[in-house]
Amino acid sequence: MELDNNNHSVFSLYYHLVLVVKYRRPVIDDTISDYAKDMFVRLGKNYNISLVEWNHDMDHVHILFKAHPNSELSKFINAYKSASYRLIKKHFPQVKRKLWKEYFWSRSFCLLTTGGAPIEVIKKYIENQGMK
């Protein structure tokens, strides 16, 4: 396993983010997905977040990214959702026909940690510390 580092720590922080289009409207095509992906990469730099993998369906996107311990994930996600919805609606007017209100993304999102050992293995490792 390759670890990232900064001045005072080493870490491996991978996350799986799922963002869903408001009302699950099928509006994401390859062009919109590529545009949203590019925005994620550009905005992520400001939050020490880097894209690992991206894929989409017509009504949601799956994003695998890595972050630093100082990354403010909820601030980043909210900033990304806000900026991307404004610019997507501006550059892709066809979206307005299916999403007539001010939102592109659903208010909720799914964020999961990934990688490393399963929780049970980690729990067992911690339980056995100090036992010889």
Compact overview of the structure:
This protein is an alpha+beta fold.
CATH architecture: 2-Layer Sandwich
Major beta sheet summary: 4 strands, antiparallel
Give the SSE string.
EEEHEEHHEH
Number of strands: 6
GO molecular function: DNA binding; transposase activity
Protein name: IS200/IS605 family transposase
Pfam families: Y1_Tnp (PF01797)
InterPro entries: Transposase_17, Transposase_17_sf
Keywords:
single chain, 132 residues, alpha+beta, Alpha-Beta Plaits, 4-stranded antiparallel sheet, two-stranded antiparallel ribbon, 4 helices, 6 strands, elongated, transposase activity, IS200/IS605 family transposase
Descriptive report:
- By secondary structure, this protein is of the alpha+beta class.
- The chain has a single domain, classed as Alpha-Beta Plaits (2-Layer Sandwich).
- 36% of the residues lie in helices and 25% in strands.
- The chain contains four helices and six strands.
- It has a four-stranded antiparallel β-sheet with strand order 4-5-3-6, covered by helices on one side. A two-stranded antiparallel ribbon has the order 1-2.
- Helix 1 packs across helix 2.
- It is elongated.
- The mean pLDDT is 91.
- InterPro entries: Transposase_17 (IPR002686), Transposase_17_sf (IPR036515).
- One of its GO terms (biological process) is DNA transposition.
- GO terms for molecular function: DNA binding; transposase activity.
- This is IS200/IS605 family transposase.
- It comes from Fervidibacillus halotolerans.
